[in-house]
Model the fold of this input.
Amino acid sequence: MSILDKASLIQIPSGYKNGKLYSVKPNPTYGSELVTNGDFATDSDWTKQTGWSISGGRAIATSTNGSLYQANDFVSGKSYKITFQITSYVSGSLICRFNNDETNIFNSVGTHTLHFKSDNSFDYVYFLGISFTGSIDNVSVKEATNIGDFTFARSSSATRVNSEGLIEVASVLADIYSSDFSSSLDGWTAFGLGNVEENISIGGENDSLRYTVTTAVGDTRAFLRLNSKTIGKKYKFTFSYYIPSTNANLNSIFSDENEIRHSTLDSWTTVTEYFTSAVTDIKLIVGDADKYLNPAATGETAYIKNVSLKEVIENDVPRLDYSGGASCASLLLEPQRTNLITYSEDLTNPVYITGGGSGSSVVRTANYAISPDGTQNATRIQITRGSVYGEIYNRVATSIGQDYTISFYAKALSGSPTLATIYDGGYQNIVTFTDEWVKYTYTYTAVTTLSGFNFTTWTGLPTTTETADLLIWGVQLEQGSYPTSYIPSNSGSQTTRTADVCNNAGTSATFNDSEGVLFFEGSALSDGTNQRWIAIGSGSNANRVSIHFNATNRISCSVRGSSSAIYDANFNIGSQTNNTKAAIKYKDSDYAFFVNGVKVDSQQSGSLSFNASLSELAFDSADGGSPFYGKTKQIQVYSTALSDTELATSTIL
Done:
């Protein structure tokens, strides 16, 4: 039997969605059904406000802004799963509320599942319409009696290095709408002077929608579906179209969101577009050279099918990071940071200032080459020193005595140019660039109130070259003593990435109060004395088993019960940024700490006593404080105390 078979919880970064990091083990188990009449078999047990009715085994909403709800007695601190079906959808949106959270909004047919931990602020199974017309069925709420998945939160987007080595914003897709038009128009109508019909066969395909121009007056004509999007949200939009070459005028189709014209004729063609929505309706405009068809287009047609709309969700998405060419992902957790650079990718923007002496020049070319994010948006910089110096800089307000870290990606296009890259009361951080993309970082303590990015060649710096020809992308200046992941900042304002929060894994059934093991593999983002914890606890730090970083070069562990220290140990690992495997064993009068295959400490005394059951694994000190920031390759929890041989073997790097 593998040692992993003994584990009660295993987290190896692999599966996730917005708000959730999935664990490999345990398989979730749930209690009994807590909803009465969730299948709406009778018109009972639910309170219906205006616009709601129950009939035919469904709860039916008609243009309602009212609620449908049922009282329930959720227990504070316990986790629950809600599932329900939207069986028909016409318009508007539906909120499924729990605690005081009204951010879970739905507007598509399908089965929807939510997980939450009760804070005892709202004891109802509750649905609220926003001009909602549609129906729901099969409402279910069950307590999660054993579940190893983590709750994840970050109220902003954030980047990672993906498995292909490219920098990207971490995101997931949520289905909003799809239809193959096999049975109905599914809410589509004609916009402008025309009509729309379903179940049309053309081009070797069945079940398409056909738009036919009906009146000889110049006008915008479009396939239209109302109230399908939320303004300000990002979407992935996919559709297939067919335009006959027999049309004399109608020869293109495009979404009104970005007006990218598509004009392939006599062939089914699939299009995928990304956009941030400015309108609520889906509109596919059919036209010619512009969006207005001339009178001669009467009777001409266009066809669509396989329409899909997915929301691109970036907030609250865990980051599985492959930095450094890693073959396996690590969970990346970082503190809040702000990129003080307002244009991090376009170095032709006027916020970047050029200067020099006689004979100097700085030439900038935007979007010259492919950058580390895989798109053509790297800026080419060509600097000639002339008689004295040549430079390009973007200095920002800094506070004297505070630590700042600058980072940027650069690649030489010719030779091995050498430049100073920072200004803080003087030129600093002289770098010789290579012909490979490299992320360069430099930390300094500000001595001036204006400092930052400054690429300079100067006769006063004899190691700098007289000329430089290179690519630059992803400039970032952040207050802090170490670099974090790239924060795109292209709006003219400083951009903030909020802190990652990852906690709430397991229940009292996952952990053993009498004995067990907590295993961790990973590294901290920096080597220092600030507190960074991973802990099993009971909702406070009165009872916890932990592995943590709190002293330079060291990894530590502790057991605390009923607010008293029971066992503490630490070990020097050279640097907290080194990948490390560590495990703490806890059992009455039998404690031990293993690091990188070696038993580094043990204790055969100490009564193990918790005054509240261990019920949660979190990347913090069990009370929400001292969050862990770093890269985690795996976490394991065992509800039995493993042997020394098992612990030594499992912690070998």
